[in-house]
Amino acid sequence: MKVSDTKESLMKCICMNCPTHTQEMKDKMQGLFCARGKSNLQFERRGCICGECPISSENRLSGSYFCNMGAAQ
Amino acid sequence: MSAYKSPIESWWVLPGFKIELVATGLDLPVNLAFVPEPDSESTAPLLYVTELYGQVKVITNDWKVHTYADNLLNYEPDHRFPGTGESGVTGLCIEPNTGDLFLSMIYEDKGETKGKVVRTSSKDGLKVESMQTVIEDIRSVKAAHQIQAVTIGSDGKLYVNVGDGMIEPEVAQDDNDLRGKILRINLDGSIPEDNPNSASLVYAKGLRNPFGAAWRKSDQTLFISDNGPNQDDRIAKVEAGKNYGWPETMRQNSLFWWEFTQAPTAIGFMQAGQFPADYDDELFVALFGASYQKGRAIKGKKIVKIRLNENDSGISSYDEFVTYIGEGPASPCGLAFGPDGLYFTDLHGEKNGLTKMPSGNIFRVSVRE
């Protein structure tokens, strides 16, 4: 299911709390990758909390690492 | 000014039972462990509780709360829920002969996050006097999937639930890696000769984030809870050498799973007469739900009771036992049977978590006379 890139979704987003979310991502205000697609920055996978996100359960998303794999389809 | 509202008003309990508040003002209380045979004096230790960010509290028979240990973490936790604030000091159990505690926790070592188990000792059980490391150097992260429950079996061995460490789930299948495993350890940290592999601490493998563990005394069997990714949280009976499937599947050798994740945390069997005989050997499971969710929720925030079927291949009944109906972020996390009832912690309490105010509670659920 596609996730809407809305203010409501952004309010629920937990990307900023993720161990994979880098300082550079924070500086560039990157997040909501499940809706907006993958990051254009260099980073390494350091764990994924997408499964804990309310957006994930509300939209029945089954994927993870949307920051690396691209938006949920 | 609003009138004081007791935290017990935030909980629904199964008709025929009542809920009481037995301790409050705790700072992110995680797991509970009762002293197996407590002394009768009012000032003797009755139960211990881990607090996520580095303390262990002891509650005496007079229900006073004391600090048993503090500053157990060697880093500054960041209070991010969900996320990098979810880990810390979690599992605990009591060695029945000495009263020593075994505690699981994470720590930082040269910039890396790792998991360990320590053993603490105290003459009176009220204040830690010495601490020894039992195992350490298990790679981890600060966003869950850490080293979790510790229990002591009837064989006198220490059983340790270890999460997969989140980053490389495939390690759960690697026999040379301790992540994603149930470990079986002599109390001094050495390998028991009768482990499935006499050269390894690994007792069972293929686990993801096995938060809870409980022994069923009637047949001395260990059961665990294990958290799936976006589905298939599960309950499993632990057997020597078995593979529980992660990361390929969360259903292998599981006896029950939730397709819609509920985040099971602590588990416990009713096996000492606290409830009527109809409840004997029923399994009580805390379903935490989202890491920080205010108000009622369809995901978790409840305790359920489960009757396993005769051969432990599935379940024969499932009921909600306690449900959160308040407006705060409280959610059941730790759970243990003690004097006259089932006790549980609510981690954040009504105010904690993001506010950093110690407002965690311990409740007792008992039969309504």
Describe this structure in words.
- Chain A has 73 residues and is mainly α.
- Chain A has one domain (7-69).
- Chain A is built from five helices and no strands.
- The longest helix of chain A is centred in the N-terminal third of the chain and has 6 residues, at 7-12.
- The mean pLDDT of chain A is 91.
- With 369 residues, chain B is mainly β.
- Chain B folds into two domains: 1-20 and 291-369, no CATH class; 21-290, TolB, C-terminal domain (Neuraminidase, 6 Propeller).
- Chain B has strands at 11-13, 17-26, 29-34, 45-51, 55-60, 65-69, 89-94, 101-109, 112-121, 130-139, 147-152, 158-162, 181-185, 202-205, 213-216, 221-226, 233-238, 256-258, 264-269, 283-287, 302-308, 315-324, 335-338, 341-345, 360-367.
- In chain B, the strands form six sheets. A five-stranded antiparallel sheet of chain B has the order 1-22-21-20-19, with no helix packed on it. In chain B, strands 2-25-24-23 form a four-stranded antiparallel sheet, with no helix packed on it. A four-stranded antiparallel sheet of chain B has the order 3-4-5-6, with no helix packed on it.
- Chain B is globular, with a radius of gyration of 19 Å.
- At the A-B interface, helix 4 of A face loops of B.
Instruction: Please give the count of helices of chain B.
Output: 0
CATH class of the largest domain in chain B: Mainly Beta
What Rg of chain B do the Cα atoms give?
Answer: 19 Å
| Range of helix content of chain B | under 10%
What oligomeric arrangement do these chains adopt? heterodimer
Helix amount of chain A, in percent? 25-40%
